[in-house]
Amino acid sequence: MTSSTTKSSVWAILGLFSxxxxxxxxxxxxxxxxxxxxETTTAEHVTSEVADGRSATAEHATEGEHxxxxxxxxxxxxxxxxxxxxxxxxxxxxxxxxxxxxxxxxIFAFLAGLFLVVVAQRAHAKRKMIPGKLQNLVExxxxxxxxxxYAMLGKETKRMMxxxxxxxxxxxxxxxxxxxxxxxxxxxxxxxxxxLAIIIFFYSQYVGxxxxxxxxxxxxxxxxxxxxxxxxxxxxMLPIHIIGEFAKPFSLAARLFGNITGEDIVIFALVGLGxxxxxxxxxxxxxxxxxxxxxxxxxxxxxxxxxxILSTIYLSLMLPHEEH
Length: 324
Description:
Strand content: under 5%
Number of helices: 10
Number of domains: 1
Largest sheet: none
Number of strands: 0
Distance between the termini: 24 Å
Radius of gyration: 24 Å
């Protein structure tokens, strides 16, 4: 593993990390703004009701609404086990932007990125001609993924390897965090998975512009017409390809979010089952969730690999055909 490759991987992790944070921040602010607008509209409606002499009805409706929100909040957060943040700062059904629990997914995403940066730095700082265990492991993984990506990207592999390799290990780390007691998998937040998918979307468009040029990029969206039939189908293929480009990040985000959330639901159900068997006598349940850990490790790896492979395919489609 060369020094330039290691440094490129570290910078790729940091860049991926920074872009993820900015995207998550904008999405969460938009959610908070929408909630604030809804609450303002509701308050104005209640005030109007009171002015019309129907204060009792408005009060009853408001109480019912708050009860519904409280139940919905518990239902939304009822599929995952407590983590260190919710234990220390207390679980809230509807945390606001000023609560640290509101940012717990971003915080755990930061921890995942920080862990990878520390590992990469240690492997780079302690490199030797005769590699140690950590250096040997990192070099083996870099070599394996380079050969893996080369089959799809060709000579562009060296340029895209830092991003795609960092993407795989970053998603894998976040997925596995859900299996560790008192931690939480940030992949169970649609904001996190969508942020990663948005990064791939913009980078793939950048690769298309740089590799194909503006005219080549437009030709790609038009379906690369080369005969009369191709040009006749341009009005049909162009909107289909445009819709497909925008659908790719949403499919990536939804797939990762749904599968990792499903894993958390299964673990939560197994823990609940173990507690229900001994809850009347002991405070410690039967650890049925341990049986799911091997499958959890497998599913987490598969989902990280699927996200990375699809991202690689999207990038390869933006390259000239002779390059892949």
